Amino acid sequence: xxxxxxxxxxxxxxxxxxxxxxxxxxxxxxxxxxxxxxxxxxxxxxxxxxxxxxxxxxxxxxxxxxxxxxxxxxxxxxxxxxxxxxxxxxxxxxxxxxxxxxxxxxxxxxxxxxxxxxxxxxxxxxxxxxxxxxxxxxxxxxxxxxxxxxxxxxxxxxxxxxxxxxxxxxxxxxxxxxxxxxxxxxxxxxxxxxxxxxxxxxxxxxxxxxxxxxxxxxxxxxxxxxxxxxxxxxxxxxxxxxxxxxxxxxxxxxxxxxxxxxxxxxxxxxxxxxxxxxxxxxxxxxxxxxxxxxxxxxxxxxxxxxxxxxxxxxxxxxxxxxxxxxxxxxxxxxxxxxxxxxxxxxxxxxxxxxxxxxxxxxxxxxxxxxxxxxxxxxxxxxxxxxxxxxxxxxxxxxxxxxxxxxxxxxxxxxxxxxxxxxxxxxxxxxxxxxxxxxxxxxxxxxxxxxxxxxxxxxxxxxxxxxx
Length: 467
Hints:
Elements: E1 4-5, E2 9-18, E3 21-28, E4 33-40, H1 42-53, E5 63-69, E6 72-78, E7 82-84, H2 85-92, H3 97-115, E8 120-122, E9 131-134, E10 139-141, E11 148-150, H4 169-173, H5 179-195, H6 218-227, H7 239-286, H8 299-314, H9 317-325, H10 334-343, H11 348-365, H12 372-380, E12 390-392, E13 398-399, E14 413-418, E15 427-434, E16 440-448, E17 452-453, E18 456-457, E19 461-466
Antiparallel strand pairs: 1-2, 2-3, 3-4, 4-6, 5-6, 7-9, 8-11, 9-10, 12-13, 12-14, 14-19, 15-16, 17-18
């Protein structure tokens, strides 16, 4: 837009406008950062400024500056990257149940912090337009123009603020502030996140959530019904009580999932164990020819036993804990993590060794032919070592050594092996080149060993030059 405020804030574009003023995105020339500048009338701006200066919470924006210019007041605030909850709902219609519950609990924490101030801060205008969804998925409240300090029994502020559909009826009759107003608004926002129904638009009603989606539990409907009750005395007494109700709902759902997973695990292990026992004992009852002992008699029992062990590892408590950890609202404490780490008896190396043992047994007793060299490599656990090689052109310039690269030097190519990186034993080195027509060229075999002189390792490189 070209405007520069107090020679510091360059206005880039408008972000929105309302009855309280206009909001712009601006660039702070001094600190090289994006900021939000709110232009407003003084009577709306100053209470908001004083309020935000005293608040410190991750879910609230930071205030940077406040000034007056050309009969207007300006508030400079933190720029929050992301989208508003209204934009999210317009794009996706509704939020998944788990996400809605997590966001509702997060809003309980933010509003509970405001209510715990002395005197209490009543937000009064909670709605999706005033909730920002950050890039990391967390929420922040914006637009504190309607927030007031409310010392119960003290002086009341004579201004009605709110949005139809998100405010209780008594908010339009009173000019003070009650915690129950924000509890009602949060219940309305939770209902909209679950159903996508905007209460400020026709038909201006809030029907039970199961009429929108039968998969939603009845316990959530009860939470919304209590929080949005017309009788203020029937609502939750605090944001902490609201959050506890949400956590109980999430805990019950999580326990149901874990119980189902445990049942599936036991059924699978019992089925595999039973099949293994049948394959082992049934031939004994019928009689086994001596020529079938130990194989092929033990072939099926061993295979089933291996599958049972693999299923046991897959269905272990560690996997069960990770499954539970993916459910929003379920957090592992550090002490629990430490205890789980101590109880792990199968480390990565042990698992690799156990897997190699299974492969060895399968290769040893399998009717399919398996090369002896492959079985030996499994037992020995050998791994390929690579030498450090540098390549230079005919003028001594170092070239980029990249796998699959093609080099066309004018005269020679020199490969250098740093002596410090060579092991102590003698190495056999042979160059293998592949022509463009696929022909393979092998050089002579060079025997290389890094030597020491007077107890110290020789410096420099071992050069192998090939024309």
